[in-house]
Amino acid sequence: MLSSLDRKLLRDLRSLWGQAIAISLVIASGVATFVNSQNTLRSLESTRSAFYERSSFAEVFASVKRAPDSLKGRLAEIPGVARLETRIVEGVNLDLENVNEPVVGRLISVPDTRKPLLNKLYLRRGRWLTPGADDEVLASEKFADANQLQVGSEISAVINGRLKKLQVVGVVLSPEYVFQIKPGDLVPDAKHFGVLWMNHEALSQAFNMEGAFNDVSFELLHGTNVDEVIFRTDELLDPYGGSGAYGRKDQISHMILEGDINGLKTTGLIAPSIFLGVAAFLFNVVLTRMLSLQREQIAALKAFGYTNLDIAWHYMKLVLLITCVGSVVGTIGGTFLAGIVTELLARVYQYPEIFVSVRWSIVALAVTVASTAACGGAAGAIWRAVRIPPAEAMRPEPPANFKPTFFERLGIGHHLPNVARMVVRQLERQKIKTSISIFAISLSVAIIVVGQYIQDSIDFVIDSQYFRMQLFDVQVTTVEPLSTDLSYELANIPGVMQAEPMRTIPARVRNGSRYRRTAIRSLPTDVSLLQLIDRHLESWQPPPSGLIVSKKLATMLEAEVGDYLTIETLEGKRPTIRLPIVTILDDLAGLNVYMNLTELNRLMREGPRATGAYLRVDPNQAENVYNELKHTPQVAAVNVKQHSLNSFQDTVSKNLGTMKTINLTFAVIIALGVVYNGARITLSERSRELATLRVIGFTRQEISAILLGELGTITVLALPLGMGLGWCFAYFLSTFLADEEAFRFPFIIERSTYALAVSVVLTASLASSLLVRSKLDHLDLIAVLKSKE
After folding, report:
1. Nearest CA to 545 among 587, 609, 597, 612?
2. Residue 612 contacts residue 527 (beta carbons within 8 Å)
3. Whose CA is closest to 301, among 684, 1, 2, 9?
4. Distance from first CA to last CA of the chain, Å, rounded?
5. Range of the domain at 522
6. Can you tell me the distance from the alpha carbon of 592 to that of 321, in angstroms, rounded to the nearest whole number?
7. Are the C-beta atoms of residues 248 and 58 closer than 8 Å to each other?
8. 779, 690 in Cβ contact below 8 A?
9. In sequence order, which residues have a C-beta less than 8 Å from that of residue 610 and are 6 or more positions away?
C-alpha cells in the first residue's frame, strides 16, 4: 500500500517526466562509459594474464649470432632462472600466390619431439607439426586470415638463399605476438608480415645452425631481480655475438599492450566524471525549481506532522529513483558498448578469445558513484527547502531584486529591442543559474573536442611520418652488413629511381648507471629520402659527429645536450664508444639514436658498410622491382611504405570512427539534457509572465524569442568556454598519451574540430529549443493566469 508521500512522489515524477528522462540519460551516459571502460580494462588485463600464464610467456629474452647448445647449461645456472628454452629465429622473404608485393616472414623453431616449454602456441585450427618434417609450418592467425591461407595452403620462402615450398598445417596464436607488428611499423600489417613456426631440426639445417641456437627465453623464479639475470645473460652471450638481453617490459608486443592498458586507465575516468558532474548539476537545478514551486506543499506537510527528515527523504527518493533508472539503462548500454569495443580489440590483438563480461562489482561502484553525485547535487536544494519555517513557506517567494543591466548602465540599453532587453535582464538577474548553465553546456563542447583530438593527432602523425619524414617508397634490409656499394646495385634495378644506404646496429646506450637497449640508426650526411622530423615539423640532418637522440630516450637516461653517452655496440667487433648529444629530437615514435653513417663505420673499425637502403621507385615499374627484391638472397626484408600507411589508416580509422560516434552521441545527450532542462525550468518559472505578455498583445513569435533568446544566449556564451575546456582536457590527456615509448600522440587540435563541436552542440540546442517551443505554443493562458492566493 503506497503512502501519501509515495503517491505524491509518483505525481511529481509524472509532471517532470521529460526532465527526468533527460537527467536519466545523462546519468546513463556516465554509468555506461564507466562500466564499458572499466569492464574492458579488467577483461583486457585478465585475458592477457590468463593467456600469458597458460602459454608460459617468458620474462627475459636474448638474441645471439650463434651460440653452441652446450652453453644452455651455463645459462640455466644463472641465479633466479626457473627454466629456459633455446631456439632459432630467422627472417625470410615470403612469396604468396595472390600477393605481388614482398612479404616479410619470421621463422621460429619449435622442438621436434615435444611442444615448447615457454611461449607455448595455442592451436586455433589444423594440427601440430609432424616430427622430422622439413616442409611444414604453423602460421600466425592474423597472417593466415589476412592472406586467406587455409590449412593445406602452400607458401614459398627464400630460406638462406634457396626457394623452398612450405605447407601450412596449422594456424596458431602466440603470447609473443598478441600485437603482431613488423619492426619499423607503427601499426600491424598482417598481410605483409607473418610469423611461422617450423621444426627445429629442419630450420637448423636450412641455416647451418646444427648444434647451435640464436635465441633464448627465460622463465624466472618469483622475486628474481630481472636486471641481474639480464646482466649475467649478456656476460655469457657477448662472446658469441649477443645483441643484448631484455625483459618482458621491453618486448614489443607486451610494451604496446601495456601502453594501451595505461591509456584505458586514464581515458576511462575522464568522461564518466564529466557526465556525472552534469547530472549532479541538473538535479540541483531541477529540484531547486520544483521545491520553490512546492513551498506551500512543504509547509502543509509540516503542518500535518511530517518532520524535516521525512520530507527530505521523500525528495531524495525522487533523486534515487531517477538515478536508478539511469543506472539500469547505463549498465545495459555499457555492456553493449563493451561488446563493440571487444570487436575493435579483436581486429588488433591475437587472443584465443576476448570475453568482456559484466563485473557486478564495477556496476555497483558505478551506481554508487552516480548516486553519490546525484544526491550531492540535490542535497543543497533539498536542505534549503525543508529548513524554511512553515509560516514563511506559506508566503510566496519575495520578488526578485530588479536593477539596471550592464548595457543600461553603459547607456546603450535603449538601443536594444524590448525582447533583447528582457533577455539580458533575466540572465543578469540570475547570475549563478546562468553561469552554471553555461558551464554545463560547455562540457558537451569539451567532450567533442577531446574525442576529436585523437583524430587530429593521428592525422598529424600520418602527415609527419609518411609524407614528411619517409620520402622513400621502399626500405630494404639485408641479412648481413654489406658494402655501401649496395645502394648502387639497387639503383641499377629497373624502376628504382634513387637509392640511399643506411645502417642500423643494436646497442646499449648508457648515461652513468642508466641504460636502454635500442638501435643506432646511421644515415649519410646528404640523406634526402629520410628526414628527421620533430613534432614541430622542423627537419634535422645527421651531424658529422655526435648523436641526435629522441627526447623520450634522453629523459629516461636523464641526459641533456652536451652530455656524453656510452654506446656499447652489439654487432661486429662490438666496440664501446663515447659520443656527445648534439641534438635532442622531440619525435613521435620509438627510442631513436641517429648519427652519421661514415662516422659510425669508422668507430666500428670497419670499411663502408650498410645494412639496407631507402629506395624511391617508379610507380609504373613497382611490381618489377618487388619481384626482383623478393628473389635477391642478400635481402632479409622489404618494407613498402604504402602498405604500412594503408594498414595504419585502415586499423586506426575504423576504431576511431566507432569511438567518435560514441563520443558524439554522449555529447548530444549532455547538450539535450542541459538545454532541455534549462528551457523547461525557464518556461515553468516564467509561464505566468509570458502568458501575461500574450494577453497584452505580444505574439507567439515574440514570447518565443524571449524564452529561446535566453537559451540561445546561454548556448552561444558556452561555446568559447567549451572550446577552452576541451583544449584543457585534451592537453591533460596528451600528457599521458605523449609519454609512451613505442608511440606518442602529439597535442594537436585543428580548427575543424572546434567547428564540429560548435555545430553539434548548436544543433542539439536547436532541437531542445524546438521541443520547448511546441509547449509554449500550447500554453493555457487562463490556467496560468489564475491566482494562486
Report:
1. 597
2. no
3. 9
4. 33
5. 496-617
6. 56
7. yes
8. yes
9. 478, 481, 482, 483, 484, 486, 487, 501, 502, 503, 597
Say what the pTM is.
Answer: 0.76
In a domain, 28, yes or no: no
CA–CA gap between residue 241 and residue 11 (Å, rounded): 82
CA atoms of 531 and 500, how far apart (whole Å): 12
- 101 lies in some domain: yes
User: Which strand (E) or helix (H) includes residue 197?
Assistant: strand 193-199
Domain termination residue (choose one: 218, 234, 252): 252
The answer to whether position 287 is within a domain reads: no
Instruction: Check: CB of residue 276 under 8 Å from CB of residue 373.
Output: yes
User: Is 30 within a domain?
Assistant: no
Name, in order, each residue with C-beta under 8 angstroms of 696's C-beta and a sequence gap of 6 or more.
Answer: none
Where a domain ends, among 219, 236, 252? 252
Cell numbers 492566493 label which residue?
A: 789
Instruction: Provide the number of structural domains found in the chain.
Output: 2
For residue 208, count CB atoms less than 10 angstroms from its CB and return exposed for 0-12, middle for 13-18, buried for 19 or more: exposed
Cell of 46: 585478465
Q: What is the CATH number of the domain that holds 555?
A: 2.40.40
CB-based contact 569:507 (threshold 8 Å): yes
Backbone torsions φ then ψ of 634, nearest 5 degrees: -70, -15
Phi (first) and psi of residue 516, to 5 degrees: -140, 145
- In whole angstroms, what is the distance from residue 669 CA to residue 28 CA? 10
- Beta-carbon contacts of 479 under 8 Å, excluding residues fewer than 6 positions away, are 91, 633, 634, 635, 636
Strand 162-173 and strand 154-159: the pairing is antiparallel
Average pLDDT, the chain: 82
Contacts 24+ apart (CB under 8 A), 340-345: 340/658, 340/662, 341/36, 341/40, 342/40, 342/43, 344/654, 344/655, 344/658, 344/659, 345/40, 345/44
C-alpha cell at 270: 575522464
User: Are the beta carbons of 777 and 687 closer than 8 angstroms?
Assistant: no
Amino acid at 219: E
Tens-place pLDDT, residues 229-283: 999 999 899 888 888 889 998 888 888 888 777 777 766 667 677 766 766 776 6
Q: Which of 5-14, 377-386, 423-432 shows the lowest per-residue confidence on average (mean pLDDT)?
A: 423-432
